[in-house]
Design brief:
The complex is a heterodimer. By secondary structure, chain A is α/β, with parallel strands linked by helices. Chain A contains seven helices and ten strands. A six-stranded mixed beta sheet of chain A has the order 6-7-8-3-9-10, sandwiched between helices. Chain A has a four-stranded antiparallel beta sheet with strand order 2-1-4-5, covered by helices on one side. In chain A, strand 4 and strand 5 form a beta hairpin. Chain A is globular and about 50 Å long. By secondary structure, chain B is α+β, with helices and mostly antiparallel strands. In chain B, the strands form three sheets. Chain B has a six-stranded mixed barrel with strand order 3-4-9-6-8-7. In chain B, strands 2-10 form a two-stranded antiparallel sheet. In chain B, strands 13-14 form a two-stranded antiparallel sheet. In chain B, a hairpin with a 5-residue loop joins strand 7 and strand 8. Chain B starts with a helix and ends with a helix. The chains are: A alpha/beta, B alpha+beta.
């Protein structure tokens, strides 16, 4: 089943001065439960593409359908609400809320959604346990290692059971061991929860873990398929 | 959740938050203490004039008030009869004689207002006796007429206790009379202009100088039950007394006193608004810095689904927490200072003469009404709301993608 359908997507920065075609006419789909890596050299448009799919930026042209709903022309406030209910984010720099504990960071979105405390507690502890950081629940981000912080960030992204998770270079700041652990956990959660996960990377080890690779260059998709085929 | 997050955010940069809180605290406590000082000075100045001269309410003939001529006197019996139904609300009364005259010694002369009093009655209405520096508050004597003068007038006339001075005045027939009085007491109220221009004599002795008949007076000073508003007493008295009389409260007799009170209130608010204006700029500056420093985090929160209203609320609450924490401590400190110095007083002895020349006491007992603290807290709250406008606007206008990239 299609979760995301993209048609003729373009993003042009500085259209009136020095136009930069960051995303230049992309057509693609993402199916439910996919574990997809967007790959390509730096500056090829991976981050812009993910931002467009996540509604963090508006496309210059084209349309993005999520579960059949066109999000390309949604207002800012509608898009914020849409993200809250449908999309999970994982960032390269972890971006946990520094004044909140690991538990509170994961619970944050569920609290925003107004879920009951009993449900929040069960879900948060289940996720922290699955990500192997249950014993760090009471600790604040600065007390955790980079790998642990990113695992908490993945737990946070999964907490509200979103339709898909967008992760922009989630392993870029991690050592090889932490990268391996994180990817294994993401794969495990992808299987267990059935959540579609789309992440960008230029790390070959990470690409090898993906079930589908989307190759980008100069804002265009130049390759699309299974890792073995790339 | 947003409230909790905002509170924790306040303490992320403890030094910066403490600087803002301490600055707010010092500004508010300073403004409140100065307001308390000014209020204390004004109130003691007003109260002193009520206690030493005016009393709560005075009754005169209307013509006396307009023309200030001693020929407009009233009959004591008539006014006593009129006030009889109100006797329960009148705590004390003093019938006085009044005239303008010239106090002369061998060295100098000075224009004064001569007030004739009956000491036992007057003690219930005013407290001039408590300001005696030398001598007595009149005594039993039939040998020579007695007078109380102030220290200031004593210095002007270059006389001493038991010296004689001559009062020149015109009697009821319009003839100039000069009578010798012996200085039996010297007072100093601390109100320079008042002291210099007032002398006190006995009604019984002054009456003969004025050639007035027994039972006639110029002025009736009243002290009324303080539990009832003075305006209510005044209204009742006006209803009870004949049309030819005029009853006036101290505020009506001396509008400048009332005006000074309200001027001091205005001054306090002006002072406070200066402090709050400075506070606004300090807070805006700090909070804009906070938004700048946390732009990536703001982008992250908004990408996760925190809407503009909640982002705005977070910064509004942070601003309010910062400001109100400072205001609460400022209130507490000023309350403690005002309470402490309100008991022991602040002694401005070095500037005593300057204070007295304006009629103020050199010992000031600061005071501030409780509701002023509440008003200040509300004003600080509103100031914080106002100050949060720019940081909130900046936070919700941040481009999410750019903020996260940064």
């Amino acid at each position: 089943m299609e979760v995301i359908k993209i048609r003729s997507l373009k993003k042009i920065y500085n259209p009136d001065t020095v136009p930069v075609h960051a995303v230049d006419g992309i057509d693609t789909e993402f199916q439910s439960g996919e574990f997809t890596a967007i790959v390509g050299p730096s500056g090829c448009g991976k981050t812009t593409f993910l931002n467009l799919v996540g509604g963090l930026e508006s496309p210059t042209e084209g349309e993005i359908f999520i579960n059949g709903e066109n999000i390309s022309h949604k207002k800012k406030s509608q898009m914020t609400d849409f993200r809250l209910h449908n999309i999970g984010f994982v960032f390269q720099a972890y971006n946990l809320i520094p004044v909140m504990s690991a538990y509170e960071n994961v619970a944050f979105i569920m609290e925003l959604l107004g879920r009951p405390q009993s449900e929040i507690k069960t879900r948060v502890m289940e996720l922290l346990d699955a990500m192997g950081v249950a014993d760090k629940a009471g600790q604040r981000p600065h007390q955790l290692s980079g790998g642990q912080q990113q695992r908490v960030a993945v737990a946070r992204a999964l907490a509200s059971k979103p339709k898909f998770i967008l992760a922009d270079e989630p392993t870029a700041n991690l050592d090889s061991h932490s990268t391996e652990t994180l990817l294994d956990l993401m794969l495990k959660m992808n299987e267990k929860e059935g959540t579609t996960i789309i992440f960008s990377t230029h790390d070959q080890r990470v690409m090898n873990k993906a079930r589908r690779l989307v190759q980008m260059d100069d804002g265009k998709i130049v390759g699309n398929g299974k890792p073995e085929a790339n | 959740m947003i409230a909790r997050l905002a509170w924790r955010n306040v303490w992320r940069n403890k030094v910066r938050s403490l600087i803002v809180i301490v600055a707010t605290m010092l500004g508010i406590s300073g403004a409140l203490f100065i307001a308390g000082l000014m209020t204390g000075m004004t109130n003691s100045w007003v109260q002193k004039q009520i206690d030493t001269e005016l009393s709560d309410i005075q009754i005169h003939l209307k013509e006396f008030v307009i023309e200030e001529d001693q020929k407009f006197f009233f009959d004591r019996g008539e006014i006593e009869e009129a006030l009889e139904p109100l006797s329960s609300s009148i705590r004390a009364q003093s019938f006085r004689l009044k005239a303008e005259g010239l106090a002369m010694s061998a060295h100098n002369s000075y224009q004064v207002i001569i007030t004739g009093v009956e000491p036992n009655q007057e003690l219930g209405v005013t407290n001039l006796n408590t300001y005696l520096k030398e001598g007595v508050y009149f005594r039993e004597s039939k040998r020579i007429k007695q007078i109380l003068i102030s220290r200031k007038l004593q210095e002007e006339l270059k006389v001493r206790l038991n010296s004689k001075i001559v009062l020149n005045l015109s009697d009821l027939n319009g003839e100039i009379v000069g009578e010798a009085f012996k200085v039996v007491g010297i007072f100093k109220t601390g109100n320079g202009p008042y002291d210099q221009g007032h002398v006190f004599v006995l009604n019984s002795e002054f009456r003969s100088s004025l050639k007035m008949e027994e039972g006639n007076f110029h002025e009736l000073a009243l002290r009324v039950n303080p539990e009832i508003p003075i305006e209510e007493h005044e209204a009742n008295i006006k209803k009870a007394i004949p049309e030819k009389y005029l009853a006036e409260t101290w505020a009506e007799m001396q509008p400048a006193l009332k005006m000074t009170e309200s001027y001091m209130d205005t001054f306090s608010y002006i002072l406070l608004s200066v402090v709050l204006t400075a506070l606004i700029f300090g807070i805006i500056n700090t909070m804009l810095m906070v938004v700048l420093e946390r732009s990536r985090e703001i982008g992250m929160l908004r990408s996760l689904g925190l809407n503009d209203r909640k982002v705005g609320m977070m910064f509004i609450l942070e601003t309010i927490y910062l400001s109100l924490t400072g205001a609460v401590f400022g209130n507490i400190i000023s309350w403690i200072l005002i309470r402490h110095y309100g008991r022991i007083g602040i002694h401005f002895e070095a500037w005593e003469e300057g204070f007295e020349s304006f009629g103020y006491e050199s010992v000031v007992f600061p005071m501030l009404e409780g509701n002023f603290y509440l008003i200040v807290t509300i004003l600080v709250f509103l100031t914080a709301l106002l100050a949060s406008y720019f940081p909130v606007r900046k936070a919700i206008r941040l481009d999410i993608a750019t903020a996260i990239r940064n």
